Amino acid sequence: MNILILGGDGYLGWPTAMYFSNRGYDVTVVDNYFRRNACTELDVGMLYPVPTLVERAKIWHELTGKEIKVVIGDLSDPEVMRSLFSGTVEYSWALDRKFLGIPETVIHYAEQPSAPYSLINYKYANITLTNNLLVTNNLMFALRDFSRDTHVIHIGTMGEYGTPNIDIPEGWIQIQRNGRKDTFLFPRQAGSLYHTTKIMDTDLMWFAVRMWDLRITDLMQGPVYGMETKDSMIDDRLRTIFNYDEVFGTIINRFTVQAIVDYPLTVYGKGGQTRGYLNLNDTLQCAHMAEKTPAQKGELRIFNQIMETFSANQLAEKVQRVGKAQGYDVKIDHIENPRKEAEEHYYNPTYQGLIDIGVEPHYLTDEVLAGMFQVAETYKSNIRKDVIFKGITW
Ligand SMILES: NC(=O)c1ccc[n+]([C@@H]2O[C@H](COP(=O)([O-])OP(=O)(O)OC[C@H]3O[C@@H](n4cnc5c(N)ncnc54)[C@H](O)[C@@H]3O)[C@@H](O)[C@H]2O)c1
Q1: For the chain, what is the mean pLDDT?
Q2: pLDDT beyond 90 at 45
Q3: What local confidence, expressed as pLDDT, does residue 390 receive?
Q4: If you take atom 18 of ligand 1, which residue's CA is the nearest one?
Q5: Mutate to test the pocket of ligand 1, among 4, 11, 251 (most ligand atoms within 8 A of CB)
Q6: CB of 34 closer than 6 A to ligand 1?
Q7: What is the 3-state secondary structure (H, E, C) of the chain?
Q8: Looking at ligand 1, which atom is closest to the CA of residue 80?
Q9: Over the stretch 130-160, which tens digit does the pLDDT of each residue have?
């Protein structure tokens, strides 16, 4: 099977590339280093240095004998996107530069993924809007023109739903009105401009499915935690990009690092904000199971990709407990909320679909958190306290 990973240098993209490569798939990754360049521009620290995508593909090949083909290019440029399907692609690194053929599956991660980034100011808002929507739209048109049978797995976000005062289904809702009924996308109401672009992605994909009979799975993912996967354990240089700052660090990753450097855990406001979370290893499993059971032609299939829910207070208490067992005096601070969001709310999403197609969840146990502490401790001297909280307000 021939699989194309858009955003293959990213936090989720690189582990996904190794995961599929190890399972015998022909993998091509595409990235333009948007994330790394943004980290440099905003001066937010990464926990450890990460070799370039080309270097990582070479290390992977040396250690496993397997090839991950690399394309460095901007997917918001339609010609770059189309070259991946038309056969005119230029590989930046590959053992064999011959076109692999049209991919059976595309995993689409290539977006600006940070809510605070999208609200720094109008400039970053525009970058987020144009980048994310153009990449998705370019993909839809490339599929329309070259390959309507290719299955797309797009990573959406649970943040698209917001925090409605009713149960959240997996993507769709049936509405009855004046004696008639129909099925619609569940109403979306995002809490940031980044999340708004993910709603717009869903609309673009739903349009393309209706018009051109594409097959798309949209995975509404919650914040991911972790830095290690089975495939990266063979060499530290294969570990994925890991941020612990306010812009790109997700909450559990951030809290773990804060605990190590005696920086009180920054709970925003009352801390009742409840979200669904999942382990990095489960992102890979979800992508794999979705790939094995593709959406039908003309189907936009939506799953909620979370394994358990926690409030910010519950996460802080967990990190505090595990940190204390490791000898750290972890404090919790309720700071003024820089975001505009409900700090106490109803939250009851369904998340059964991925389990039904074979995903076996990992949970945030004390052992799993302790493992994250151990890796982060190794790089303690790299941790910069000044990047942890920058105070980007909504
Ligand atoms: N990490 C999470 O907790 C999380 C949660 C929910 C949803 N998601 C979604 O999953 C996807 C991947 O997230 P991530 O955490 O790996 O983010 P990431 O920033 O680490 O990965 C995205 C990758 O895409 C690349 N990219 C962005 N724009 C591009 C372009 N125009 N051309 C080529 N490459 C481009 C970036 O350089 C980066 O390497 C995103 O779409 C994000 O919205 C992530």
Answers
A1: 97
A2: no
A3: 87
A4: 10
A5: 11
A6: yes
A7: CEEEEECCCCCCHHHHHHHHHHCCCEEEEEECCHHHHHHHHHCCCECCCCCCHHHHHHHHHHHHCCCEEEEECCCCCHHHHHHHHHCCCCCCECCCCCCCCCCCEEEECCCCCCHHHHCCCHHHHHHHHHHHHHHHHHHHHHHHHHCCCCEEEEEEEHHHCCCCCCCECCCEEEEEECCEEEEEECCCCCCCHHHHHHHHHHHHHHHHHHHHCCEEEEEEECCEECCCCCCHHHCHHHCCCCECCCCCCCHHHHHHHHHHCCCCEEEECCCCCEEEEEEHHHHHHHHHHHHHCCCCCCEEEEEEECCEEEEHHHHHHHHHHHHHHCCCCCCEEEECCCCCCCCCCCCCECCCHHHHCCCCCCCCCHHHHHHHHHHHHHCHHHCCHHHCCCCCCC
A8: 32
A9: 999 999 999 999 999 999 999 999 999 999 9
135 within ligand 1 shell (Cβ under 6 A):
yes
Q: Give the mean pLDDT of 232-260.
A: 96
Q: Is the CB of 284 under 6 A from ligand 1?
A: no
Does residue 218 line the site of ligand 1, with CB under 6 A?
no
pLDDT of residue 109: 98
